[in-house]
Amino acid sequence: MMKYILVTGGVISGIGKGIIASSVGTILKSCGLHVTAIKIDPYINIDAGTFSPYEHGEVFVLDDGGEVDLDLGNYERFLDIRLTRDNNLTTGKIYQSVINKERRGDYLGKTVQVVPHITDAIQEWVVKQARVPVEDDDVEPQVCVIELGGTVGDIESMPFIEAFRQFQFKVKRENFCNIHVSLIPQPSATGEQKTKPTQSSVRELRGLGLSPDLIMCRCSTVLENSVKEKISMFCHVEPEQVICVHDVSSIYKVPLLLEKQGVVSYLSRRLNMPIETRPRKMLTKWKEMSDRSDRLLEQCSIALVGKYTKFSDSYASVIKALEHSALAISHKLEVKYVDSAHLEPSTLQEEPVKYHEAWQKLCSADGVLVPGGFGVRGTEGKIHAISWARNQKKPFLGVCLGMQLAVCEFARNTLGWTDANSTEFDPESKHPVVIDMPEHNPGQMGGTMRLGKRRTIFKTNNSVLRKLYGDAEYVDERHRHRFEVNPELKSHFEEKGFRFVGQDVEGERMEVIELDDHPYFVGVQYHPEFTSRPMKPSPPYLGLLLAAAGKLQSYLQKGCRLSPRDTYSDQSGSSSPDSEISELKLPSISNE
Ligand code: GLN
């Protein structure tokens, strides 16, 4: 019998509900259970495909080409699973399915209503999707973690809450439970931990017919015992059902934090799951990882030359992939955000300080990463950055747009085609080195993007990236693009040592570029960041970090193995818990 764990949020969003839900899944998986996840986004958009990264952060791409909420990335990374587009449920998708049924006449002339038709559709979706295998062994999951986006009480989430209210009786008590993630603010004026917002949100949840089995309290410091007792008393739960999730230096600590407070044994009793409660191998690895992340002595900096640099969420998976790789080689990662538009000569005139600051950041970094993107703004700046990395022999990785611009840069500055460009930015260019080569997906609305998992074949043994992939003959990675390197101009590049070492199955699409005579100059048309894992860093990113830390050559010579000295910090020196990127921290709230 499938066990469902619904994770709801109280007070405010953006306090780490996704990380907590993923961590619950992680500790259950470490007990040998098969775990899957569903993320519910109560907005009316069908999916995240049309979202602006300015507003929503990155669009996460799945194997099947699903463009989904970036939280799905948390589940894939924490649980090391592969999800499908239907694991992201939105109001839009539910209404679309109900309306399609209505048009087909499936409702036999009845009035179609939120209750019961929408709520039924939600439950059916969840039951069906929970059973879809997400691991390589193709077995049906045993536990499904369902994260409901937003906070309880939002108008948008009402049909979902109502659906689960009904659902708890349908599937029986021992198969369903609710974890409510709430906020315990600590206004600096008194320094006291305040429980009132949590009390009201639990009351609201109860009013809608769901009772929390665990209240996970997000707070900046450890929850005081008296506060725990107060929550227990006013929210009508046992003290053991109140779990403290205080700010921690690394998100890898959250599974351990939950496990220590008895979450596994509580859930195994509550959901009647016979699971082993001995120390678990997998959690040991998480412990090792989180300890290691506290003891990193050496630093490695990467300039992230992008566009939406005010919102680090726009590059969530890219940053994760960098972190995974840095951790694998025991280096503390510093990401230097560089707004590529500031690297352009026009900025020098208008805002000289910004221009010089941007170049200072770029030039002082150990490696350069130009990520994916759309739209012309800042592309010239990215080309300047690539040119600098190529000439100064700085390790460089170009992802998707980053690779396309590396092709433009080489064409302009080495082949002498000064107007070379992508037709995305200059349709009139005499040297269209990157052109529109859409993949036609008939029947799919607006389906001209090349989306999801596609195969890349390595064309030569002599490729750094191929070695980094463990000398694979081919790799399957996720794509999201419309433009491609112009295959007709290929030979001009290869004559000058700019090689297209990976291509698609038909040999028409250039997937991987490498430059001879450079410590690390790699471009990939796909997005390797989407499949990077904490314990299995993505090879193109690992290559960048290794090169930036000056370790790539020895790594390759050792047959692509990290020596224990590289992977573990052998000196138990001072801890540096200030890694600002992957920590779990509450947003600062004003105390008025
Ligand atoms: N805009 C480019 C294209 O459509 C690159 C897309 C991307 O970087 N994801 O091909």
TrEMBL record:
The GO terms describing molecular function are:
ATP binding; CTP synthase activity; identical protein binding
- What CDD domains is this protein classified in? CTPS_N, GATase1_CTP_Synthase
Q: Where is the Glutamine amidotransferase domain?
A: 312-540
Does the keyword Ribosomal protein belong to this entry? no
**Function, as annotated:** Catalyzes the ATP-dependent amination of UTP to CTP with either L-glutamine or ammonia as the source of nitrogen.
Query: Is the Nucleotide-binding keyword given for this protein?
Result: yes
- Specify the protein name: CTP synthase
> One Gene Ontology cellular component annotation?
cytoplasm
